[in-house]
Structure formats: structure tokens, C-alpha cells
Amino acid sequence: MKQLFKDYEVRHILVQLIFSITLTLSCTMFELIIFEILGFLDSSSRYFYWYLMLYLLLFVVIVLNPFYIGYYCISNIRYVRPDYIKHLTVLTWLIFLAVFWKIGEPFPIDHPNQGFFSIESLVSRIGVIGVTVMALLSGFGAVNYPYSSMKFFMRDVSETDVLNIEKRLMQTMEMIVLRKKRIVMARKQQLHMKVDSGNKRGIWEMISSVTGNKSDENINQLRLEIDGLEEMSRQLFLEVHENRNMLMRIEWSKTWKGSYFNFIGYIFSGYCLWKIIICTINIVFDRVGKKDPVTRGIEIAVIWMGFDFDINFWSQQISFYLIGCIVVTSIRGLLLTVTKFFNRMSSNKSSNIIVLLLAQIMGMYFVSSVLLLRMNMPVQYRIIITQVLGALQFNFYHRWFDVIFLVSALGSMVTLYLAHKPPVKDNMM
């Protein structure tokens, strides 16, 4: 609460409660995945809790969150009478349900025997949205993390370069002030000439009018020069700001923490390139992995390297730690992204809406995480998850993730290159 709402206080207890319930249900689903691997609780108990948590989370994501998002959006509209808020909220929620149902039509996710309120129909549509969000965030993170942490992507900037740009910025500001002073002086001169021209006649009035027109031309010319100089000052200010940040990054990279993140950046760069290649191969050849990383790694260790060990024991242990790392990093990464987004977008009026929107995204994100995590688990641990989720097209979601990840990663590369392109040196000053 203190970290997320530190700038804009969310006073509505219901909003805080909805966000907390969504996060709790999402984390409980990950906890049930760990229970599947450990064999904790009886199988029938885990099966019951899977259904319970999934139905509760679906209720929050499809009914509770959208309803109150619509309510607070309509409440913030000044021209809506208080008597009409509830009716418009119900209408907005019905429109959301219609759009939510239509989302599934372009995708091969429907089954002839599925009803509107079946788990398969609801989860399949949430999965399309959630997997899209996951792939977009994953693609951007895989590209942005190496760029922001590795020395290789840092421009060589010195304190002298920054001081020179700051000097140019100060000179530009002085030129702007000087021209604005000249405009003020020209206007005063025009005012005096108009007063004097009221007492003159004939040829002197004609000379004064001609002189006044020249003064107008000078003012217009000065305004054009000021516009150009102000644009230049904005560009110089942005360049100073970027170079100052780069200097801070260079100093940070010399610390132990910077060296550690630089090393991790190389690992992420390799992962990003590997993931782009694998996604491209999967899309081109319409391929979906059949075996989880744990099973594949054990097969390589046993068959190709000749190691002899207890396969069942190590399969459980490695699966536990692998899924645990994925769960922790997923929750941490999403909450950090949510915090940054909230602090940038929220205001006193929109804070409730932003919190509910983030709760909505979080619920869809974690439901989709369960769909994709299923592939990272050995077959013996997928049984209950497959039974609970029903006849879903799991292969479709993995292919869809590959497509969106590839688009997001390549788009992030182009965007970061264009956004942080080194400034072109000019000789205007």
C-alpha cells in the first residue's frame, strides 16, 4: 500500500480490497502449482481448491472489477446525474460482456460444447488478453533490460561535453532574452510614435506611418527568431538531460552492483537472441514444444552424458525450483511495472480507476501465466491443471505468445534505437 499509493492516496476501502483480493487469488493459484509439484494435500482437496480459486478469480476479473471500473468512470463525468449512475454502470458492464465475448470469435479457442459461463469459454478469452500482455511485457523487458544495464550500450560522455552543451544552452537563452527585450523596446517606440503622430499633419504623418510599418516588420522577424531559438533551447535541454543521465549510468556501472547487472545483461542478451530465433522457428514451422525444460534437461543428462541418478526425485526438485523462480520473478516484475505505471498515470481523480485497471490486468496476467506455466511442468504434474481448465487449445496460446513476443521484441529494438539515437552535432553556434 505504501509503495503503490505513496503519491496519490486511494481512500476507498472497497478499491483497496478488490486489489488485495485479486493479488491474493493470483498468488494462491501459483501456490497451488507448487502444491502440485510437492504433492501437498490430498489430490481431491487440491482439485477442489483449484476450482474454488479459479471461479473466484473469474468472478473478480469478469464481474467485480469491470463493474466498479465503469462505476468510477461514470461518477467522474460531471454532466451525469447521480440518479443515472447505477443504470449507466449496469449498461456499461453489459457492453463489456458483449465485447469480452466477441474477443474470442477471431481466434480458434471456442468449442461447440462450451457454454457462455463455462470455465473453458471464460478462461480462453481471458487467456488471449493475458497472454498478449505477457508477451508484450516479456518482449520489451528482454530488450530493455540489457540496454539499460550493459556498458556496451552506454555512450561515451564526458563532463566536458555536458558543460559545453550547457554553455550553448545558456547562450541560447541569453539570445532569446535579448530579442524579447528588443521587441519590448520596439513596442514602446511604436507607442510614442502613435502619440506624436496625433499632433502631426501632412508629410510628417506619412513618414511616421512608413516608419511604423518597418517597426512591425522588425517585431515579426524577431518573433520568428525567438521561435527558432526556443526550439533549439528545448533540444539542447533534452540533450543535457540525456547526457547527465548517461554520466550517472557510467558512474553506476563502475560499482559492484553495476558490474553485476552488466554480467546479467549479457545473459539476458543471449536469452533475447535465443528467444527471437526460437519464436521465429516456431512461427515458420508451426511448432510447439512437447516437453518441458526439466524433462528435456534430464534426458540430455541421462542419455547423452551418461549420468545415473534418481530421475523422479530430481525431476520434482528441479521443477520445484524452476517454477518457484518463474513465479517469484513474474509477481515481482508485474508489481514493479504496476507501481511505475500507477505513479506516472495516476491523479487525485483517476487513482481509483487506475488501481482497478491494474487489478484487472493483474488478474488476467496471472490466469494466463497458469496456461503457459503448464508447459514448463513435467507431464505428471499437469493432470489436475488440465482437468480444471478443460478442453483449452493450449498450443494456440504458446504460438500466440511467440508471435506477440517477436513483434514486441523487434518493435522495442527499433523504438529504443530511434528514441536514444545520438544527437547530430551542428555548428549553428
TrEMBL record:
<feature type="transmembrane region" description="Helical">
    <location>
        <begin position="123"/>
        <end position="145"/>
    </location>
</feature>
<dbReference type="GO" id="GO:0032580">
    <property type="term" value="C:Golgi cisterna membrane"/>
</dbReference>
<feature type="transmembrane region" description="Helical">
    <location>
        <begin position="318"/>
        <end position="342"/>
    </location>
</feature>
<dbReference type="GO" id="GO:0051452">
    <property type="term" value="P:intracellular pH reduction"/>
</dbReference>
<dbReference type="InterPro" id="IPR022535">
    <property type="entry name" value="Golgi_pH-regulator_cons_dom"/>
</dbReference>
<keyword id="KW-0812">Transmembrane</keyword>
<keyword id="KW-0175">Coiled coil</keyword>
<feature type="coiled-coil region">
    <location>
        <begin position="212"/>
        <end position="239"/>
    </location>
</feature>
<feature type="transmembrane region" description="Helical">
    <location>
        <begin position="403"/>
        <end position="420"/>
    </location>
</feature>
<feature type="transmembrane region" description="Helical">
    <location>
        <begin position="84"/>
        <end position="103"/>
    </location>
</feature>
<feature type="transmembrane region" description="Helical">
    <location>
        <begin position="12"/>
        <end position="35"/>
    </location>
</feature>
<dbReference type="Pfam" id="PF12430">
    <property type="entry name" value="ABA_GPCR"/>
</dbReference>
<feature type="domain" description="Abscisic acid G-protein coupled receptor-like">
    <location>
        <begin position="253"/>
        <end position="421"/>
    </location>
</feature>
<dbReference type="GO" id="GO:0008308">
    <property type="term" value="F:voltage-gated monoatomic anion channel activity"/>
</dbReference>
<feature type="transmembrane region" description="Helical">
    <location>
        <begin position="47"/>
        <end position="72"/>
    </location>
</feature>
<feature type="transmembrane region" description="Helical">
    <location>
        <begin position="263"/>
        <end position="285"/>
    </location>
</feature>
<keyword id="KW-1133">Transmembrane helix</keyword>
<protein>
    <recommendedName>
        <fullName>Abscisic acid G-protein coupled receptor-like domain-containing protein</fullName>
    </recommendedName>
</protein>
<feature type="transmembrane region" description="Helical">
    <location>
        <begin position="354"/>
        <end position="373"/>
    </location>
</feature>
<dbReference type="InterPro" id="IPR015672">
    <property type="entry name" value="GPHR/GTG"/>
</dbReference>
<keyword id="KW-0472">Membrane</keyword>
<dbReference type="InterPro" id="IPR025969">
    <property type="entry name" value="ABA_GPCR_dom"/>
</dbReference>
<feature type="domain" description="Golgi pH regulator conserved">
    <location>
        <begin position="116"/>
        <end position="183"/>
    </location>
</feature>
<comment type="similarity">
    <text>Belongs to the Golgi pH regulator (TC 1.A.38) family.</text>
</comment>
<dbReference type="Pfam" id="PF12537">
    <property type="entry name" value="GPHR_N"/>
</dbReference>
